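Subject: Sanity check before I submit

Could someone independently write out the structure tokens for this chain? I want to compare against mine line by line before I put it in a report. The sequence has 201 residues.
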Amino acid sequence: MTVRKTAVTTVPLHPLLAERWSPRGLDAVHELPDAQLTALLEAARWAPSASNTQPWRFAVARRGTDAFTAVRDTLAAGNQLWAHAASALVVVAAQTTGPDGAPRPWAAYDTGQAVAHLSVQAQHEGLALHQLGGFDRDRVAALLDLPAAVVPLVVLAVGRHDGQAELPEALAAREQAPRERLPLDALLLPLPTGPAEEPAA
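---
Independent answer below. Compare away.
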């Protein structure tokens, strides 16, 4: 069964944005081709970052490997129920200090931009992408032997959507539910309307 969740927007959006969503039903036999994986990582590589510091780092574990099993086992129990069918699990981390030890205060923000670029490329490639915050960061850091300055932020489950995939009832219902967002007006911060106050002497 094909599930379409095109966003209901006040003005038209590019289809890659309007049709992107985060399924949990994945094809457990789909294999991620090298060319598509490279395209995802290239899309992330060319994201903008503060002073071009490029703080994002990736670890890719394909299904059927020991690495995949190890990353899967760090996921929260509810995520393990379906993420085992992903073609690959991608750990995304941010390098929070530079080579000189100076902090990179925008590292997490920039890494989020890289993932956003990756997610749009995945939509273009006809792939499903679900971003997971429910995982044990300390276990992932130990698994990858990450230095303290490289902080795991998210795990991406990448694969091909399967509308017939078996899911627990609650998750299956969420697959069919319409996408929801706050109305645009609720996201706009009010601006001051009077003259700016002079700072106190």
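---
OP: Matches mine. For the report I'm noting this point. The chain has a mean pLDDT of 95.
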